[in-house]
Write a structure and sequence with these properties.
- There is one protein chain.
- By secondary structure, this protein is of the alpha/beta class.
- The protein has one domain: Maf protein (Alpha-Beta Complex), CATH 3.90.950.
- Helices cover 32% and strands 21% of the residues.
- The chain is built from five helices and six strands.
- The protein has helices spanning 12-22, 47-62, 100-111, 178-184, 186-204, and strands spanning 4-7, 28-31, 66-75, 119-129, 138-148, 164-166.
- Helix 1 links the parallel strand 1 (4-7) and strand 2 (28-31).
Length: 205
């Protein structure tokens, strides 16, 4: 088992979640920003291709094993949109003081304004490469079912968290503490599966 792992993300909210979820590994978790890794292009239409590209990119620039995730919100009535474009859903010129998350949420509320079907899910795929040219990347995925509300609820989290109502708890993600969110989220499920795979590989080594 390696003793250092680079996390291929510049999203601080996502970084905190991943660091929390990887704490059982007891290895050094390093954000790619510590190595000044340049931003990686995400030109693909699937989550898995983008995650693999980001993991290989980070490993190439650091010489270390790297982990990347690609995740997003998939709304049934929008045929899976915003999907891989979730983080940059609102592309209109900035004409207000709203940040990107707020603009994304506002656009989602607008396009769903007259829609009765509010069902949606978050999807996450996690990819770990031991080196840039790893022919056997370790891949795990997770899904979180819920629905989109008409108004914001809660002050925690990031992205679409204030609008996404968890089907089981009846709370938005922004109303859930990190400990619970980490356990039941799409990213939490994907990371749990990844940890199981790493444990199995470690026993086989």
């Amino acid at each position: 088992m390696f003793n250092k792992l680079v996390i291929a993300t510049g999203n601080q909210g996502k970084l905190r979640e991943i660091q929390h979820l990887l704490s059982p590994l007891q290895i050094e978790i390093i954000p790619q920003a510590a190595f000044n890794v340049p931003e990686c292009a995400e030109p693909f239409c699937t989550f898995i291709e983008n995650a693999l590209a980001k993991a290989r990119h980070a490993s190439k620039h650091t010489g270390l094993p790297a982990l990347a995730d690609d995740s997003g919100l998939c709304v049934n009535a929008l045929q899976g949109a915003p999907g891989v474009l979730s983080a940059r859903y609102a592309t209109e010129p900035v004409v207000s003081k709203m940040n990107q998350d707020e603009r994304n949420n506002q656009k989602l509320l607008t396009v769903l304004a007259d829609e009765k079907n509010r069902h949606a899910h978050f999807y996450c795929v996690v990819v770990l490469v031991r080196h840039e040219h790893d022919p056997e990347p370790i891949i795990a995925e997770g899904l979180w079912a819920g629905e989109i509300l008409n108004e914001y609820r809660g002050n925690e989290g990031f992205g679409y968290d204030p609008l996404f109502l968890d089907a089981k708890t009846g709370k938005t993600i922004a109303e859930l503490p990190l400990e619970i969110k980490s356990r039941i989220s799409h990213r939490g499920h994907a990371m749990a599966k990844l940890l199981q795979k790493l444990e199995r590989l470690n026993h086989e080594a």
